[in-house]
Amino acid sequence: MDSKRVIVPLDFPDAARALAMATRLDPSLCRVKVGKELFVAEGPAIVHRLQDAGFDVFLDLKFHDIPNTVAGACRAAARLGVWMVNVHATGGEAMLKAAREAVASSARPPLLIAVTVLTSLADAELAAVGLSGSAADNVGRLAALTAQCGLDGVVCSPLEARALKARHGEAFKLVTPGIRLPDSPADDQRRVLTPAEAAREGADYLVVGRPITQAPDPVAALRAIGAQLREATS
Ligand code: C5P
To answer: Which residue from 94, 117, 196, 223 has the highest number of Cβ atoms inside 10 Å of its Cβ?
Structure first.
């Protein structure tokens, strides 16, 4: 089992604030996620500065375009030396396979993960964009397509993890946000599990933001989560 299962999202508008948080973390205890806001503001330089500080970087740009364009973006991400990169599963089979081939042909292939259904979309909104069935149905179908195309795993809710693990096996990686400590506020997340619960449900990597970044001592929060994960899986 990977000893660094916690991914801390650096959802900040600029490098100064992102690096200020990174310096309060410990690269031996977690990985970090660079999303659209920080990457658009600061570009590849922020990825390199985090890597120089010892962190593995999950580049969370959720590529969604024609196969050739997504393949190029995945190749560029791999050249940055990121640990994980992601695409939207709704880009379809040809796009997913092009992404996988682009990553596989790189010198240091990152893990390639697909987003199934954004958790911000409820069933009514899915219908409005032409996706019939419930969010859970769509997650199941898109995860199956992702697995069939040979990607490494999906982003999902920890509440979907058990069913996806059962269907796709241990090697299919599940990355789950929506994690809260027993005593931390849910904030704007609706369906949350604790780190121990998520681990027991089968989550491989836990994206944990505010319970760490807003804690008075982020490293202490990381250590507490690490202890809970070890206990849950021992
Ligand atoms: O602070 P919190 O733990 O809620 O942060 C969760 C992180 O995971 C944020 O960066 C958020 O954008 C991201 N995320 C999410 N739900 C998803 C996908 C990503 O909360 N379905």
So the answer is: 117
